UniProtKB/TrEMBL annotation:
It comes from Flavobacterium aquicola. Keywords: DNA-binding. GO terms for cellular component: cytosol. GO terms for molecular function: DNA binding; DNA-binding transcription factor activity. InterPro entries: Tscrpt_reg_Rrf2 (IPR000944), WH-like_DNA-bd_sf (IPR036388), WH_DNA-bd_sf (IPR036390). This is BadM/Rrf2 family transcriptional regulator. The keyword DNA-binding applies. The keyword Ribosomal protein does not apply. It comes from the Bacteria.
Length: 136
């Protein structure tokens, strides 16, 4: 199941993408409009800022804003930053692979084969969508 952190991160990015002229938006405004706790949203936006998706301006008229064009923000990248691996099992992951302790032979593991298909299809959907695709 998708974590609230990822769900709220997507909602916040979508809200920012819809701003005219990419103007900075205060955390309180995003939180109010998207029904997200300000404290929780602060940590999410900081993570997205440190990952290179957002910029921040201090002072009057300040807030967060997109530093990339929404069409250049892959939802697969957003997902990996906020959620972590796309694969549901570590042995089915491309970027976060780990051998399962309880598995003798990955090539015959039915759970791994199924979860690899789930990963591939999920990845296809996430990679084929940008922030622009879902925001407008």
């Amino acid at each position: 199941m998708l974590s609230k952190k990822t769900k709220y991160g997507i909602k916040a990015l979508t809200f920012l993408a819809r701003q005219e002229d990419n103007k900075p938006v205060q955390i309180a405004e995003i939180a109010k409009n998207e029904h997200i706790s300000i404290k929780f949203l602060e940590s999410i936006l900081l993570l997205l800022r440190n990952s290179g998706f957002l910029g921040a301006k201090k002072g009057k008229g300040g807030g967060y804003y997109l530093i990339k064009d929404p069409k250049d923000i892959s939802m697969a990248k957003v997902y990996r930053i906020l959620e972590g691996p796309i694969a549901l099992l570590p042995c089915a992951s491309h970027n976060f692979y780990e051998k399962c302790d309880d598995c003798d032979d990955e090539t015959t593991c039915a759970a791994r084969r199924l979860m690899t298909q789930v990963r591939d299809n999920t990845l296809k959907v996430l990679e084929s969508n940008t922030l622009a695709d879902i925001a407008f």
